[in-house]
Amino acid sequence: MMLRTAARRRTAATVAAVCTLAVALTACSGTTKDSAAKDSGNAGGAATAKADPDAPLKKGLKLAFLPKQVNNPYEKIVDEAGIAAAEEYGGTGKEVGPSDAGASSQVSYINTLVQQRQDAILIAANDPNAVCGPLRQAMAKGIKVVAYDSDTAKDCRQLFINQAGSEEIGRGLVRNLGKQLNHRGKIAILSATQNATNQNTWISFMKEELKLPEYRDMKLVKVAYGDDDDQKSFQQTQGLLQAYPDLKGIISPTTVGIAAAARYLSDSAYRGKVVLNGLGTPNQMRTYVKDGTVAQFSLWNPEELGYLGSYAAAALASGQITGAEGERFTAGRLGEYTVGKDGEVILGKPTVFDKNNIDTFDF
Question: Which fold has domain 42-163+302-348?
Fold first, then answer.
């Protein structure tokens, strides 16, 4: 009997010692690697994690870029720049994604990337909510999630790398077109997909700008959707002009759409009569600027967008930042950036391209 009592005391002492050691590590809570990762992924990870701004960027980080669609030339520039940036800090990157821009087309790719245990997923979302479930699962497993170009819902990622301020883009496009039209005439918008977060945000600011008194003689008659597909965007442009033969201007805030619209206008009777403005790359729009189809358009440097996104993801994965407002990190040759409200990081102001400066750019 005394032997059993002594054995019990030794067992209890051993358990107490083990728990004392565990308290220092996990507070005897039964926390596992996955549950700790889940805590760090909650609410973008900024609520429970603590940033270490002096932490070095980790070597060997694995980043995956998931564009709206892999055959989008604009997003190809963004992703290739981000992959090249990863090599600068000793990481690796890759691009994967669907060939169409459907709302749920990216989901299966996210699931695969989670299984592959990427350190970070960078996504240009086709739909703000359709990708949220698998992205939350990714964050729960400690994978960092960075949206770029087109945002997800705010609780489905830690950061959003925005090309420029959304209000500045939307209002700026209307201002530019308004000046070209002397603030008179019917206009239309040729967008990408109906659910694209960035497009819808810009369009909402376009509509707000159009409510101002100086635009009282300008009327938005239609928002058309080309689904970031070249042929469909071409056909939508044709349809707009057939439906509204007195149309005076088109804004296309998508690089696929503006190029397709310019191609249609350049070979039609509307060339020189309908003003086209929007967002495009210099290389795809150079011909149309020089032949007079398009007088001006805007964009930021997509290479810098991918570069910034890559360094932001690396800073997250290395613990330099968590995505909380006010945190700072250095993005290589671009210098220091500050995380804004809701985890937004803004690249900078867009550039307006015309015949006077277009040949100085190559992207």
Answer: Rossmann fold (3.40.50)
Question: Residues for the chain: how many in total?
Answer: 363
String of DSSP letters for 74-139: HHHHHHHHHHHHHHHTT-EEEE---SS--TTTTHHHHHHHHHTT-SEEEE--SSTTTTHHHHHHHH
- Is domain 166-299 annotated with CATH 3.40.50.2300? yes
Average per-residue pLDDT for the chain? 89
Among 15-19, 56-60, 71-75, whose mean pLDDT is lowest? 15-19
Instruction: Report yes or no: 135 and 121 within 8 Å, Cβ to Cβ.
Output: yes
Mean pLDDT, range 300-325, rounded to an integer? 97
The distance from CA 102 to its chain's CA centroid, rounded to whole angstroms, is 16
Give the residue from 160, 86, 103, 155 showing the smallest Cα distance to 95.
86
* Bridge pairing between strands 297-299 and 351-353: antiparallel
Bridge partners of 268?
A: none
Q: CATH topology of 42-163+302-348 equal to that of 166-299?
A: yes
DSSP per-residue letters across 191-213: ES-TT-HHHHHHHHHHHHHHTSG
Domain ranges of the chain: 42-163+302-348, 166-299
Mean pLDDT along residues 106-131: 97
Q: What is the pLDDT of residues 29-53, one digit of tens each?
A: 333 333 334 334 444 444 467 999 9
In the structure, how many helices (H) and strands (E) does the chain have?
11, 14
pTM: 0.79
What are the pLDDT digits (tens) for 158-183?
999 999 999 999 999 999 999 999 99
The type of residue at 127 is: D
Cβ atoms of 192 and 126 within 8 Å: the answer is: no
